[in-house]
Design goal:
Keywords: ATP-binding, Kinase, Nucleotide-binding, Transferase
EC number: 2.7.1.100
Radius of gyration: 21 Å
Largest sheet: 5 strands, antiparallel
CATH architecture of the largest domain: Alpha-Beta Complex
Oligomer: single chain
Helix content: 40-55%
InterPro entries: Aminoglycoside_PTrfase, Kinase-like_dom_sf, Methylthioribose_kinase
Structural class: alpha+beta
Bound molecules: adenosine-5'-diphosphate, magnesium ion
CATH class of the largest domain: Alpha Beta
Pfam families: APH (PF01636)
Strand content: 5-15%
Distance between the termini: 55 Å
Number of helices: 14
Number of domains: 2
CATH superfamily of the largest domain: Aminoglycoside phosphotransferase (APH), C-terminal lobe
Shape: globular
GO molecular function, one term: ATP binding
Order of helices and strands: HEEEEEHEEEHHHHHHEEEEHHHHHH
Number of strands: 12
Length: about 400
């Protein structure tokens, strides 16, 4: 069937026709999408209490409107990635129940018993299992889709399957390019504009280093990366962690996922400087965030290396020194991407509510300047850091 746009009633009709609910069910549907791009319906049988989520792509960018067309083909990448995640890390992602590439939709497990990690963090919630879970997600998805594990042929087929032209272009522009000059699409706090004009946009060496990281993003088909791994793509509870919204997935630099999630945690860390919260509470929460980043990264490296020792198939992966060099480069790039994502969320098109929730524009600007400065330190000095502790020490010293 050719594409049509779902609404609440049509989503019910569709799921009934697919036999996803039984004939006797009594369905309600609610559109809950809060993301930048797509429609998301929670459809529930009020009799049995069972529910599913139907996510459909719109033929344009939702936050901008029909003036920015975007093909609905992105659902195919999300479904393909989610199928692979369902195989590699089934406990850490929503179960994929059904896909319909013509209608550009997927039906998946309803996770609304969990809270979006970003909203939890804005209330200083702690997620005790997060570091353990996200490090497994990263180590397993990034290792088992790499050349260390896959055969050369399988790997190249995967590269071909994930030619995600349009969503890669969004990242190339919005993350790696627009923030470095006065681009039309930037979304700028008016109080920050003078700083951008007089200081930030004159940093040609910074733009050069970011461009090198962009080039790796363009060319380095290392692993199947999630591509949009911020705290709004994660549900986190006391016991569970679920990673979703993989429409940006493609075969790219593994460090991008690792750097992006750490960068988003750092953004939350810095954001508290602009908020009227109890100083001790802030200190306590920041210590928790630092511990989380350290644990996440240490566990990620440990698990990635364990996977390598156990399951590397490529004989070159056993050559003396190869793995150490790989891990070192991965770390350097992780720090670079971490800095890049901190910067793009300040004045690029899409912001983080952690910072935009600061209503006083002067206070918000001060936080934003801090983020730009920290992002720059990370990018410019990425080769000088020896381990994650040195990175978090730098953060602590500067905030
Ligand atoms: P977008 O690609 O537009 O950003 P997301 O996949 O991030 O869309 O989903 C937008 C919102 O819909 C999420 O923030 C979440 O509130 C809700 N949502 C998405 N998937 C699920 C799910 N499996 N269970 C419950 N809610 C979901
Ligand atoms: Mg999203
Ligand atoms: Mg919670
Ligand atoms: Mg998305």
């Amino acid at each position: 069937m050719s594409y049509y746009q779902m609404n609440e009633n049509l989503s019910i009709d569709y799921l009934m026709k697919q036999g996803i609910f039984s004939e006797t069910s009594n369905l309600t549907s609610r559109e809950v999408g809060d993301g930048n791009l797509n429609l998301v319906f929670i459809v529930k049988d009020t009799l049995s209490g069972t529910s599913v989520v139907l996510k459909q792509a719109l033929p344009y960018v939702r936050v901008v409107g029909e003036g920015w067309p975007l093909s609905v083909e992105r659902t195919i990448f999300e479904a393909n990635a989610l199928e692979i995640h369902n195989r590699i890390v089934p406990n850490l992602v929503p179960k994929l129940l059904h896909r319909d590439d013509e209608l550009a939709l997927i039906v998946m497990e309803d996770l609304s018993h969990l809270e979006l990690m970003r909203y939890g963090m804005m209330k200083m919630e702690k997620h005790p299992k997060f570091a353990e879970h996200i490090s497994t997600f990263l180590a397993d998805t990034l290792f088992y889709t790499s050349d260390m594990h896959m055969s050369s042929e399988e790997k190249k087929r995967l590269v071909a399957k994930f030619i995600n032209v349009e969503l890669c272009k969004i990242t190339e522009d919005l993350v790696f390019t627009d923030p470095y000059y006065d681009a039309d699409r930037n979304n700028i706090n008016p109080r920050l504009k003078p700083y951008l004009e007089e200081v930030f946009w004159k940093k040609t060496e910074l733009w050069l280093e970011t461009s090198k990281l962009k080039y790796k993003f363009l060319t380095e088909a290392q692993s199947l990366i999630h591509g949009d791994l911020h705290t709004g793509s994660i549900f986190a509870g006391e016991e569970e962690t679920k990673i979703f919204d993989a429409e940006f997935a493609f075969m790219g630099p593994a460090a991008f996922d690792v750097g992006k999630i750490i960068g988003n945690i750092f953004i939350n860390y810095v954001s508290w400087s602009g908020k009227d919260e109890d100083v001790e509470k802030i200190q306590d929460y920041r210590s928790y965030l630092i511990e989380t980043v350290k644990r996440l990264h240490r566990l990620f490296e440990k698990k990635f290396i364990e996977n390598w020792k156990k399951d590397a198939q490529d004989i070159s992966a056993r050559v003396e020194g190869y793995r150490d060099q790989f891990m070192r480069n991965l770390f350097i790039d992780t720090i670079g991407y971490c800095g890049v994502v901190m910067i793009r969320r300040v004045h690029g098109l899409a912001h983080n509510i952690d910072v935009d929730g600061i209503e006083n524009l002067e206070k918000r600007r001060d936080v934003q300047v801090k983020l730009l400065e920290l992002g720059e330190i990370l990018i410019m000095n990425r080769h000088q850091f020896n381990n994650i502790e040195e990175v978090t020490d730098m953060l602590r010293e500067n905030i």
